[in-house]
Amino acid sequence: MRKITNRFGSTKKYPLRILGIFFVISSAFLLLATSSWPCTISGYVRFANGIGLSGVTMSGLPGTPVITNTSGYYSRSVTTTPWSGTVTPTLSGYTFNPASITYTNVTSDVKQDYTAKATATVTLSNLTQTYTGSPLTPTATTNPSGLPIVWTGAPQTNAGSYSVTATVNDPNYTGSASGTFVINKGTPTINVTPYNVPYDGNVHTATGAATGVKGEALSGLDLSGTTHTNAGSYNDIWTFTDVTGNYNNASGTVSDQINKATVTAITFGDLTTQTYTGNPLTPTVTTNPPNLGINWSGTPGLPWINAGTYSVTATVNDPNYTGSASNTFVINKATPTATLAVSNSPQTYSGSGQAATVTITASSVPGSVANILTGGAATQTNAGTYAVTADFVPNDTTNYNTLTGLSAGNFVIDKATPIITWDNPADITYPTALGDAQLNAAANYLSLPVPGSFDYNPPSCGSPPLNPGNGQILRVDFTPDDQTNYTFASATVSINVLVPKVTKEQIFDSWICTQTDASGYPVAMYLCASSDCSSCMTNPMTNLNRCVNSPLSDVAFLAGQLKWVGPGSETVDFVTSKTVGSVTSDIIYRCIEGIDLCFSCGGGPPWACDPSIPTLLSTPSVNTTVQEKIDDVWLCAESPDESGCFQTIYSCPNATDQNPCPCVPDDTNKWPLSTLSNVAFLAGQLKWVGPGSDNLTCETVYFVTTSCIYKCISDTGDCFVYPPSCAQ
Question: 55, 296, 331, 642: which has the fewest C-beta neighbours closer than 10 Å?
Fold first, then answer.
């Protein structure tokens, strides 16, 4: 308790404690003081070299966490005394000594320092080595590098497996690593010297020695398997068995040789020239010293039965002696007999070269036929009769001679009969005249076309249309151009002639009634104010509303007349406007895709229809580039807008099916833009019209004239033009 002096100078103290508060009365004045007096716990956290460590949390002190500063200093005032607790320094990657301090009833200042060590990483390597005869130690690396290491369990010298530990020996770092250190056995050096001696009846053994890694002599080499007496070539085995525990056992082979002794003489009996008989033939021979075994050899080898000239050798066959002698032995070929005949005659003309096949009807020995000549050549193509010769080749050409140029008879090539290919034509609608679609017979033979002329009945020209009815017979007679190699031929088919059919379709507010043939192509078209086509076709051949047909090339659209283009059912439709005086009329052109035919309808009073363009789009597609070839011109269309319609079209001369659109649009190849109403075709210019194949929801139509190509978007009226001069 502090001394409190009152204003009268009195130092007498009057303590009174109530509920933990001291009251001091002095000269009638009451003073207030607290009952706890602060004390401080402080110190440093340093490395062994005296450098402070910052960032260490001193866990356990009261209040907010205490962390060391850049000098490693920490301090905390304890306001409640006496104070008890445990203080533990912590920082990842470090250890501390002491690890913690426990305080009991602290009532005064305390200074406590700690020593820090960083945690180092120790990595072991080179844990497997081979015995060298000297002490061996694994390799240890530290992080941070270069820290001193103390080994436990190493170094080791002898082969074996050892537990080792590498421990960091540094005042500022701690760490260790353990592993198994293996010293493998060494490989000894074995030198074995073979022997190569002539046969002398004595015992012979190879010599050798085993040496260690330091050049020391090693025992355990066994050469007993190399011992021999008789002549011969030996692949002998030696073995090494280690007795020290530090070397691997070993074994190997050595080639030892005891050569045979040479005989003094080998003499042949009689060598004569003979003719092949089918029996083995051999010369005779004697040796010195006598009664030694003999092996015969030669080129070709035994037995010597076949005709030919042989280089023969007599070789001594004895375990301990050697010797040989050579000479020439000759056997001549024999001559066979044979009869040949043609076996594949006659044949039929095929347009390609044909050869006779010759067989053997009789022969003294087995054989085959070769070098067959038909009329003096390898093959003949045209129909006719040809003499045949051939060679007889015996199977055994080694022992028999070949017979050449034997007669085999004649080879005959007959004329071919063409095959008429003519399918029953598709049904036609009366009064369709017969034409190329029905009278389309073809003559061929062996998949090859046969040139010639076709005579149809009824003919394609000059005969009236066939009356309606099923199964009517058509006939053709074929005369080949090449009557040397082909015969005449004929064929018949049947055709059904149907009653005309009528279909209908609405374009704007008018109906077009169409009389079609069996394939669905229009034969005649009529305008009708209602969907009841029968009311407009009471007299179809003279009715005033009948549409007029004309060639596609004669359809002419002058600039400003073309209003709309759209695909129909297997057709392309055009709508134009024509003004005569004060009356404006719409004219419909319906052109059939794939053929040069258009029907034009209208030209009377104006139609009561909405002139706006019909909506042909659904969900826009997302294509970036479409490639197409039109009239030998490659075009590339790209960058569709949100409606799916192309924004850019350009020519790409280098485009192919394998490399579509290899170029990019620029001012030199982009197609200029025009409008559908400005597209002008003069009579006789229009060559082809068809819908595009862009796989987009925006429909496109192509026009090809004698000088221009137009690619028009039906719903927007935009046209891309090639070449640029067509847009002017």
Answer: 642
